[in-house]
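Q: Hand in one record:
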Amino acid sequence: MNDNLLRLALPSKGRLMERAGELFANAGMPIRKIGHERGYRGEITGRPGVEIAFLSAAEIARQLNLGRVHAGITGEDLIAESGRDGATRIELVRPLGFGRADVVVAVPECWLDVSKMGDLEEVAAVFFREHGRRLRVATKYLNLTRRFFSQKGVTGYRIVESLGATEGTVAAGTAEIIVDITSTGTTLKANHLRVLDDGLILKSQAMLARSKTAPWSKGNQAEMDEIVSRLETAGR
């Protein structure tokens, strides 16, 4: 990392990239890519002390955790998932008001007697007696799931890591429960799933975050302070 530049990571594709670009443009800090239009480097017009790295939202959370970028915009859910010590390594600077989604625990609609997390332990015991295996929970949020289930006292399960459409795993017969993000609930309903009454793990949105482990210089911090100030002024 160049200690003379503030390295800022922004989403490389999708709606998060578009909204982040709009956010900075509205704050008088238009962003442009350097080199090929599909490249992964950019700059803020008029701010030579800032280097932009375009990364996936999940990679931004990881790089913040490792201290390889100074700051970035990504989902709060991905920051929380990035590691148990994420809170000590990443500071949430400012909620941005877009990219809203809830991380939830959802079960089949036909499980009429299961309405809360506490019901899952009893279901897990019955399921094990009948099938000889634990309930399978499909998710890409391994850390969030383990922490939440532990807090709720649910132990009779195993995680099936989901790399694709998590909401389809129950219908496909590869899981009994899912932990996933939802914004409207439409996709869950289409797959005959419902959220448990106390199954909300996290209300997430896009966040401007800073790494506590990156090598911060006075110049880096001054650039960061200016960016935060401009974003706050534009948001009023």
Summary: The first helix runs from residue 14 to 26.
